[in-house]
Amino acid sequence: MTLETWQFAVCDWKPHHLHAAQGAGAEVVVPTNRDPYEWVPRASCALPPLERTAVCALLSGLRVVLVGDSTLAMVFHSLALALRARTQMDTSGGRRVAHVACGPHAAPVTVVSLRNDLLLQDTPQDKKVVRSHRLEWFRKAPWLKEGGNLTILGAGLHDVGSDGSDKIEPGFYARHLAAAIRSSGPNRTAAVAIAAPQPGCSRFTAPLPLSRARLLANNASAADSPYLAQWRVWAQRPALMRSVALANGASFLDLTSMTITRPDRALGRFKTWMVDKASKKDVPIPARARDCVHFCLPGPTDTLARVLIAWAAERAREGGMLT
Length: 323
What we know:
This protein is an alpha/beta fold and 323 residues long. It has ten helices and eleven strands. It has a domain at 47-200 and 227-260 and 293-318: SGNH hydrolase (Rossmann fold, 3-Layer(aba) Sandwich).
């Protein structure tokens, strides 16, 4: 596996080096430092390398659609940028497309990323939810029109407030995940859980053993993060997603053990500043309030991308989708 990829998040750079240029519907990114760690699976669980030749052979001719919030968008960037795809995005940033040229021996691969944080569809019921709960600001890009061979649904996390309460109504996410699976085709769909923030992520400099990572997260206090109540509700999301996915005939991938153990590559360890809206100047972010949800690239999202490629390849092979 080639560990050197390109950055999506703010890592290992000073602020004035971090502004990615954009133009003509394409994203331009700059290299960042390599991740010194690589996840090594058991011998019986080999993952495909995050390299163009391998991915083209496994997914030849396929169109894979990723639907969810920013945690799944991170994985899209790992895929698109490590494979050196031609990447386009719409003006709102809610839809990104990576075109992977595969040469003479395989058909091109397309990966689409749609920001639809709550898995909302263009139905009268969902429109009523948007109006009644004032959700107009949520991105809700439709995915059924994308014509994907395979669909990967992320865990919408924005239905939970910072105090851990339901921002909409109880059971909202479970109902929308079930509806999204049925609409996308259960045998062509996977639900994936990614977010597992490690409170106080900015103090870690190396990966954690899984047992210690879980112990630290369970024993964290409000002094470690103002979002602790919200994150503890998120910790229950994988079990919910699993039950909904299996009940509706879809696959389920729980990748939280890979993310909770990597606070050393969390964005909050590197991005210690923010732009003050009033003064337009950089101001420091208190350690407890830094971003422990998102990751730097290269980092654990490269491994998450490899897991999704492996699932897509297996499902495509079983379904006779390859060209």
